[in-house]
Amino acid sequence: MAKILMKGNEAVAEAAIRSGCRLYFAYPITPQSELIEYMARMMPKVNGTFLQAESEVSAINMVYGAAGCGKRVMTSSSSPGISLKMEGISYIAGAQLPAVIVNVQRGGPGLGDIQPAQGDYFQATKGGGHGDYRLIVMAPASVQEFADMASEAFDLADKYRNPVMILADGMLGQMMEPVEFKPAKTDEEIADMWRQHDSWCICPNEDGDKKHHHEINSLEIDPQVLEKHVNNIYKKYAEIEKNELHFEEYNLSDDNEILCVAWGTASRVVKSAINELTKTGKSVGLIRPINVWPYPYEAIAKAIGPKVKKVYVFELNTGQMLDDVKIAVKGKVPVDFWGKVGGIVFTPAEIKEKLEACF
Amino acid sequence: MEKIAYRPESLTKTPFTYCPGCLHGIAHRLIAEAIEEQGLTNKMTGVAPVGCSVFAYKFFNFDMAQAAHGRAPAVATGMKRSRPDMHVFTYQGDGDLAAIGTAEIVHAANRGERISVFFVNNAIYGMTGGQMAPTTLPEMKTTTSPYGRKTDDIGFPIRVSELLATLVAPYYIERVSLLSPTDIIKAKKVVSKAIQYNKEGRGFTFVELISTCPTNWGLDPIKSRDWAKDNMLPFFKPGCFRDKGEGVE
Ligand SMILES: Cc1ncc(C[n+]2csc(CCOP(=O)(O)OP(=O)(O)O)c2C)c(N)n1
Ligand code: SF4
Ligand SMILES: [Mg+2]
Fold this sequence. Notes:
The structure holds two protein chains of two kinds.
Chain A: E1 4-7, H1 8-18, E2 23-26, H2 33-42, E3 49-52, H3 56-68, E4 73-77, H4 79-94, E5 99-105, H5 121-125, E6 136-138, H6 143-160, E7 163-169, H7 170-174, E8 176-179, H8 187-195, E9 215-216, H9 223-243, E10 247-250, E11 258-261, H10 264-279, E12 284-289, E13 291-293, H11 297-303, E14 310-315, H12 321-329, E15 335-339, H13 348-356
Parallel strand pairs in A: 2-3, 2-4, 4-5, 5-7, 6-7, 11-12, 11-14, 14-15
Antiparallel strand pairs in A: 1-8, 6-13, 10-12
Helix pairs in contact in A: 1-2, 1-6, 3-4, 10-13, 11-12
Chain B: H1 24-37, E1 44-48, H2 56-59, E2 64-66, H3 72-82, E3 87-93, H4 94-100, H5 102-111, E4 115-121, E5 124-125, E6 131-132, H6 151-154, H7 160-164, E7 172-177, H8 181-199, E8 205-210, H9 214-217, H10 221-235, E9 239-243
The structure holds thiamine diphosphate, iron/sulfur cluster and magnesium ion (MG).
């Protein structure tokens, strides 16, 4: 298929539909509105459900209901709306349901602004909702990757029966880049994907031996039973931490004097700065976590080459992933941080200046 | 021989968890009987609320979901939209539906979601130990209105059936009482009608059931019913507010 020039918000919506997503519930918010609008236009064309909910709270609970019926379902929002979804996300994780949530982050806290930011890292990777649970969190850095992650996210959600978040930002949502789509799933493939959940999901019943009583539920009132339930979920998370580490190594070599760690939009700017520095003979490497949960701690530790004086973290926040990098580095070398907030994206020249000062 | 007392096949064998004299059990039974009588047991699914009936997902003998507090109508929307071949109901208390879940119920009704909602109004938060509900009557004492509900401070009880009847989309809205055997027989007819309309895919159906909470009202079951007859029914008058099937608009 030829490449098409598309906004990230639209590309992820198109890719979700091609991956068999047939239900989408959301509430409008900038900078993700192209996503909800694309779904409003396209879902009816594939006999899917598009529903503009009365709030993000309702939207995520509609997702809970549809996911409980074993269907591929998605919602999307931007930071303030994601906060409202957190109650529902905790229930979805507790009830072990597959669902995909897209966060096109904007500046916060509070109403903040509508420019790109990465301030929801803690919320996405460390909790956000109540209780012991984890989201699989994927962080794209291009429109192509944003689109590709839609189908990966649905596969992971189905495989682990866990909510998956795609943590993008206003820049990736709004900018246009060429994107190539995978072929759309056929109706038969989609029906098969749904049927894989028949053993636990809400579905029509039968008399006799095949009679079932499936419960979509996160309540376990007996502490012993709840403990077992949570421990079982954590066994699943241990599997995810083993299987789903995903990161990019950029310009890594034994000559690196600085190792950068950056994710999403921030990593693009850091790459440009590294390219400039390479031309002047300065060697800087980059680790870009593509999944930010599970987190590639070991990969970062391994990437600290013999000449590395410093690990430098760049984020569009006040230093959130920084904590994970410190855990990975274990004090072996100093860890420095520079970030921009307020929806302002740093420039390659600014990053280059910060890095040059280290040589 | 005619069977006059039996457990409907649409109820599991799990014993109810309700206090003696509580009317939640009767409400469950009416819904279960109506589902069975209309041959819907295998195509039915429901959503349990947060409240004393939180375990309703264990009691109905088909697939069930349990929802976050107040969100049952949104969950049911997701279920009905993804399984249009199934029939969906929610079962909710007055704190669940008329306080924290006000937005969800109003908008599900306003969309005309093809679901049935059974709303058990006992004028109190039963599960959490008897706090004031949006339906608590003026001057009624609860643990969070220890001097009685003051209407100049916290307003009047919400009449949810009347409120929803201002919307155009709902197909059927009726309020019934569970306070006497005659009322229960009438309530059964109304519950059956809601289930029948649901079966026929006609639209949003809503039944409010006036109930009691002997435990938190501090009255025995009989006195609770008498109190509710004297105090709840004059404010929450039973009646049909909408029945598009019978031309009541
Ligand atoms: C988000 C949230 N807030 C509060 C609670 C605590 N809570 C549990 S049940 C309940 C009230 C239920 O009252 P009602 O809906 O009237 O049901 P009843 O028990 O009277 O049948 C509350 C406030 C909760 N579980 N979740
Ligand atoms: S507390 Fe009240 S509503 Fe709850 S089971 Fe007991 S009597 Fe029924
Ligand atoms: Mg109540």
